[in-house]
Design a protein that fits this description.
Layout (H helix, E strand, L loop, with lengths): L17 H21 L6 H8 L3 H7 L3 H26 L5 H17 L2 H11 L5 H19 L10 H21 L4 H26 L5
Helix pairs in contact: 1-2, 2-3, 4-5, 4-7, 5-9, 7-8, 8-9
Length: about 220
Protein backbone atom coordinates (compact mmCIF):
# COMPACT_ATOMS: atom_id res chain seq x y z
CA UNK A 1 0.00 0.00 0.00
CA UNK A 2 1.40 3.41 -1.00
CA UNK A 3 1.79 5.41 2.22
CA UNK A 4 4.24 6.97 4.62
CA UNK A 5 4.75 4.67 7.58
CA UNK A 6 5.04 6.25 11.04
CA UNK A 7 8.76 6.20 11.77
CA UNK A 8 8.45 3.99 14.86
CA UNK A 9 6.35 1.42 12.96
CA UNK A 10 8.27 1.25 9.70
CA UNK A 11 9.76 -2.14 8.77
CA UNK A 12 13.54 -2.37 8.87
CA UNK A 13 13.59 -3.60 5.28
CA UNK A 14 11.32 -4.96 2.58
CA UNK A 15 11.80 -8.48 1.18
CA UNK A 16 13.32 -8.29 -2.30
CA UNK A 17 13.89 -11.91 -3.23
CA UNK A 18 11.42 -14.79 -3.44
CA UNK A 19 12.92 -16.57 -0.44
CA UNK A 20 12.69 -13.44 1.71
CA UNK A 21 9.10 -12.84 0.61
CA UNK A 22 8.22 -16.40 1.59
CA UNK A 23 9.83 -15.89 4.99
CA UNK A 24 7.82 -12.74 5.63
CA UNK A 25 4.62 -14.50 4.54
CA UNK A 26 5.35 -17.29 7.03
CA UNK A 27 5.97 -14.73 9.77
CA UNK A 28 2.65 -13.02 9.00
CA UNK A 29 0.75 -16.30 9.11
CA UNK A 30 2.45 -17.24 12.37
CA UNK A 31 1.47 -13.86 13.82
CA UNK A 32 -2.15 -14.53 12.94
CA UNK A 33 -2.01 -17.99 14.48
CA UNK A 34 -0.60 -16.63 17.76
CA UNK A 35 -3.16 -13.82 17.79
CA UNK A 36 -6.06 -16.21 17.32
CA UNK A 37 -4.77 -18.89 19.69
CA UNK A 38 -3.40 -16.77 22.54
CA UNK A 39 -4.69 -13.22 22.07
CA UNK A 40 -3.00 -9.87 21.65
CA UNK A 41 -1.62 -9.60 25.18
CA UNK A 42 0.32 -12.87 24.87
CA UNK A 43 1.62 -12.16 21.39
CA UNK A 44 5.38 -11.61 21.44
CA UNK A 45 8.04 -11.65 18.76
CA UNK A 46 9.54 -14.73 20.43
CA UNK A 47 6.27 -16.66 20.21
CA UNK A 48 5.78 -15.58 16.60
CA UNK A 49 9.32 -16.64 15.65
CA UNK A 50 8.83 -20.03 17.32
CA UNK A 51 5.51 -20.58 15.51
CA UNK A 52 7.07 -19.50 12.21
CA UNK A 53 10.09 -21.74 12.65
CA UNK A 54 12.57 -18.89 12.28
CA UNK A 55 14.98 -17.25 14.67
CA UNK A 56 14.06 -14.07 16.50
CA UNK A 57 17.02 -12.49 14.73
CA UNK A 58 15.47 -13.30 11.35
CA UNK A 59 12.19 -11.69 12.41
CA UNK A 60 14.07 -8.60 13.64
CA UNK A 61 15.70 -8.22 10.23
CA UNK A 62 12.29 -7.05 9.02
CA UNK A 63 10.34 -5.89 12.08
CA UNK A 64 12.04 -4.13 15.00
CA UNK A 65 9.28 -4.94 17.51
CA UNK A 66 5.78 -6.34 18.00
CA UNK A 67 3.98 -3.11 17.05
CA UNK A 68 5.85 -2.84 13.74
CA UNK A 69 4.96 -6.45 12.97
CA UNK A 70 1.26 -5.87 13.68
CA UNK A 71 1.29 -2.68 11.64
CA UNK A 72 2.81 -4.46 8.65
CA UNK A 73 0.30 -7.29 9.01
CA UNK A 74 -2.60 -4.83 8.96
CA UNK A 75 -1.09 -3.06 5.95
CA UNK A 76 -0.88 -6.38 4.09
CA UNK A 77 -4.47 -7.25 4.98
CA UNK A 78 -5.88 -3.85 3.93
CA UNK A 79 -3.90 -3.98 0.70
CA UNK A 80 -5.50 -7.32 -0.17
CA UNK A 81 -9.01 -6.01 0.57
CA UNK A 82 -8.38 -2.82 -1.43
CA UNK A 83 -7.17 -4.85 -4.41
CA UNK A 84 -10.34 -6.96 -4.27
CA UNK A 85 -12.51 -3.84 -4.33
CA UNK A 86 -10.50 -2.19 -7.10
CA UNK A 87 -10.68 -5.31 -9.27
CA UNK A 88 -14.43 -5.76 -8.93
CA UNK A 89 -15.12 -2.06 -9.47
CA UNK A 90 -13.02 -1.92 -12.62
CA UNK A 91 -14.65 -5.05 -14.00
CA UNK A 92 -18.12 -3.50 -13.54
CA UNK A 93 -17.57 -0.21 -15.33
CA UNK A 94 -20.62 0.46 -17.49
CA UNK A 95 -22.81 -2.10 -15.70
CA UNK A 96 -26.34 -1.41 -14.45
CA UNK A 97 -26.45 0.16 -10.99
CA UNK A 98 -28.00 -2.90 -9.32
CA UNK A 99 -25.23 -5.15 -10.60
CA UNK A 100 -22.57 -2.70 -9.39
CA UNK A 101 -24.04 -2.60 -5.90
CA UNK A 102 -24.33 -6.36 -5.57
CA UNK A 103 -20.80 -6.89 -6.88
CA UNK A 104 -19.12 -4.35 -4.61
CA UNK A 105 -21.01 -5.31 -1.46
CA UNK A 106 -20.33 -9.00 -2.10
CA UNK A 107 -16.64 -8.46 -2.86
CA UNK A 108 -16.07 -6.52 0.35
CA UNK A 109 -18.21 -8.88 2.41
CA UNK A 110 -16.38 -11.93 1.08
CA UNK A 111 -12.95 -10.38 1.63
CA UNK A 112 -13.82 -9.74 5.26
CA UNK A 113 -15.65 -12.97 6.05
CA UNK A 114 -13.80 -15.71 4.18
CA UNK A 115 -11.39 -15.82 7.13
CA UNK A 116 -13.58 -14.37 9.84
CA UNK A 117 -11.20 -15.36 12.61
CA UNK A 118 -8.42 -13.37 10.96
CA UNK A 119 -10.58 -10.29 10.47
CA UNK A 120 -11.78 -10.42 14.07
CA UNK A 121 -8.23 -10.80 15.40
CA UNK A 122 -6.98 -7.86 13.35
CA UNK A 123 -9.84 -5.64 14.44
CA UNK A 124 -8.89 -6.35 18.05
CA UNK A 125 -5.19 -5.78 17.42
CA UNK A 126 -5.71 -2.51 15.54
CA UNK A 127 -6.91 -0.67 18.66
CA UNK A 128 -3.33 -0.55 19.94
CA UNK A 129 -1.83 0.69 16.68
CA UNK A 130 -1.21 4.12 15.21
CA UNK A 131 -2.90 3.01 12.00
CA UNK A 132 -4.48 6.26 10.85
CA UNK A 133 -2.25 6.41 7.78
CA UNK A 134 -3.25 2.85 6.84
CA UNK A 135 -6.96 3.63 7.07
CA UNK A 136 -6.56 6.84 5.09
CA UNK A 137 -4.63 5.10 2.31
CA UNK A 138 -7.17 2.28 2.18
CA UNK A 139 -10.03 4.76 2.09
CA UNK A 140 -8.52 6.75 -0.77
CA UNK A 141 -8.13 3.63 -2.89
CA UNK A 142 -11.61 2.30 -2.25
CA UNK A 143 -13.24 5.73 -2.65
CA UNK A 144 -11.55 6.24 -6.00
CA UNK A 145 -12.45 2.78 -7.29
CA UNK A 146 -16.09 2.97 -6.23
CA UNK A 147 -16.64 6.51 -7.50
CA UNK A 148 -15.05 5.70 -10.85
CA UNK A 149 -17.38 2.72 -11.19
CA UNK A 150 -20.55 4.58 -10.21
CA UNK A 151 -19.72 7.37 -12.66
CA UNK A 152 -20.01 4.92 -15.57
CA UNK A 153 -23.40 3.36 -14.85
CA UNK A 154 -25.83 4.01 -17.73
CA UNK A 155 -28.92 4.21 -15.53
CA UNK A 156 -28.02 6.74 -12.84
CA UNK A 157 -26.79 10.31 -12.50
CA UNK A 158 -26.02 11.78 -9.08
CA UNK A 159 -26.00 15.44 -8.07
CA UNK A 160 -22.93 15.01 -5.85
CA UNK A 161 -21.18 11.73 -6.58
CA UNK A 162 -18.55 12.35 -3.90
CA UNK A 163 -21.12 12.52 -1.10
CA UNK A 164 -23.25 9.68 -2.49
CA UNK A 165 -20.21 7.44 -2.83
CA UNK A 166 -19.05 8.24 0.71
CA UNK A 167 -22.47 7.35 2.10
CA UNK A 168 -22.59 4.15 0.07
CA UNK A 169 -19.21 2.96 1.33
CA UNK A 170 -19.90 4.03 4.91
CA UNK A 171 -23.00 1.82 4.95
CA UNK A 172 -20.97 -1.15 3.71
CA UNK A 173 -17.99 -0.69 6.04
CA UNK A 174 -20.10 0.06 9.10
CA UNK A 175 -22.38 -2.91 8.63
CA UNK A 176 -19.53 -5.36 8.14
CA UNK A 177 -17.62 -4.06 11.15
CA UNK A 178 -20.75 -4.37 13.31
CA UNK A 179 -21.07 -8.03 12.34
CA UNK A 180 -17.62 -8.67 13.78
CA UNK A 181 -17.84 -6.40 16.81
CA UNK A 182 -21.09 -8.09 17.90
CA UNK A 183 -19.84 -11.59 17.01
CA UNK A 184 -22.95 -12.30 14.98
CA UNK A 185 -23.43 -15.90 13.82
CA UNK A 186 -22.86 -16.82 10.19
CA UNK A 187 -26.57 -17.28 9.51
CA UNK A 188 -27.36 -13.74 10.66
CA UNK A 189 -24.43 -12.40 8.68
CA UNK A 190 -25.76 -14.00 5.50
CA UNK A 191 -29.13 -12.34 6.04
CA UNK A 192 -27.45 -8.97 6.66
CA UNK A 193 -25.45 -9.39 3.47
CA UNK A 194 -28.65 -9.60 1.44
CA UNK A 195 -30.27 -6.75 3.35
CA UNK A 196 -27.18 -4.56 2.92
CA UNK A 197 -27.38 -4.96 -0.86
CA UNK A 198 -31.07 -3.97 -0.77
CA UNK A 199 -30.40 -1.00 1.53
CA UNK A 200 -27.53 0.35 -0.57
CA UNK A 201 -29.51 0.04 -3.78
CA UNK A 202 -32.51 1.78 -2.19
CA UNK A 203 -30.28 4.64 -1.07
CA UNK A 204 -28.67 5.01 -4.49
CA UNK A 205 -32.09 4.90 -6.17
CA UNK A 206 -33.24 7.68 -3.86
CA UNK A 207 -30.09 9.72 -4.58
CA UNK A 208 -30.66 9.21 -8.30
CA UNK A 209 -34.30 10.39 -7.96
CA UNK A 210 -33.22 13.53 -6.10
CA UNK A 211 -30.77 14.36 -8.86
CA UNK A 212 -33.40 13.81 -11.55
CA UNK A 213 -36.80 14.73 -10.04
CA UNK A 214 -38.46 14.84 -13.45
CA UNK A 215 -37.70 11.12 -13.89
CA UNK A 216 -39.29 10.11 -10.58
Amino acid sequence: MDLDHPTHLAPRKQPRQARATTTVDIIFEATLQVLMAEGLQRLTTTRVAQRAGVSVGTLYQYFPHKQALLYALNARYLDIVAERVETVCESHHGAPLARMVEALVTAYWTAKTERSDVTRALYRASVELDNESLIEAFGRRVDAASAAMLATTPDADFADLRVVNAMFLTAIFGTVRTVFERNMPTSVGSDLHRELIAMCLSYLDAARARANPSDA
